[in-house]
Design brief:
Layout (H helix, E strand, L loop, with lengths): L1 E3 L13 E6 L2 E7 L5 E3 L9 E5 L6 E3 L1
Length: about 60
């Protein structure tokens, strides 16, 4: 899975955000965004995941 974290107010990428992937409330993997807000999570098997993104100065967002 590859995606980008964007500040919804400024529309700018969010560098250094922590991306946490959970399956059935169990930690699968943690990743971080690069300077352009991009991140890649490899080797996810088909399933339903909760993806949370945290960064200093921002509120937590979780998507399923």
């Amino acid at each position: 899975m590859t995606s980008q974290v964007i500040n919804t107010e400024t529309k700018q990428p969010t560098q250094g955000a922590t991306v946490t992937v959970l399956n059935d409330q169990k930690l699968v993997v943690v990743g971080f965004t690069d300077a352009k807000g991009n991140f890649t999570i490899n080797e996810l098997h088909p399933g339903i995941y909760n993806i949370s993104v945290t960064a200093d100065g921002f509120t937590l967002e979780t998507h399923r």
